[in-house]
Amino acid sequence: MLEEILTFSAEHLDSCAHVYVETFKQEPWNECWSFETARVRLWETLNTPGFVGFVLHHHEPLGFILGYCEQFYDGKHFFVKDFCVQTDKQHQGIGTKLLNHLTIVLTPMNVSQIFLLTLRDGQAEAFYSKNGYCRSPKIIVMSQQLGSRTDSWTF
């Protein structure tokens, strides 16, 4: 079986939730996802109106990209909600293949812009820059911590 890009569906939830947990527990994210919380997140994204997602598969999922289209005043935009590649498979072109495939699919859908959130000044930002993405000169991310938790990740 050769490497193939498949449309993300419910049948990919379990295997991709495992990839998600393993990827995001590593540097630089150090996030504490459980299989259950990762699966719920992916399921919620899958069920978002305007969902588009793909899995690069070769005997197992090597990586995936998920997000959704939304209307904006100047046309349709696509928000990349989650994108990850197995840690030991990074730097092999998998992420670039997924981004390229996403662009090919979104173009005839009249999507005018793709946007995403990522960590500043790290390997992820360098990857996106290499693939033609740039920092927004107008938008910043702001957050507010709710409750008494002090151990959660903040923007």
UniProtKB/TrEMBL annotation:
CDD domains reported for this sequence = NAT_SF (cd04301)
Which Pfam families does the record match to this protein?
A: Acetyltransf_1
Q: Which PROSITE patterns match?
A: GNAT (PS51186)
Which branch of life, at top level?
A: Bacteria
Q: Which GO terms describe its molecular function?
A: acyltransferase activity, transferring groups other than amino-acyl groups
Species source reads: Scytonema millei VB511283
This protein is called GNAT family N-acetyltransferase
SUPFAM superfamilies for this protein: Acyl-CoA N-acyltransferases (Nat)
Q: Ranges for the N-acetyltransferase domain?
A: 3-147
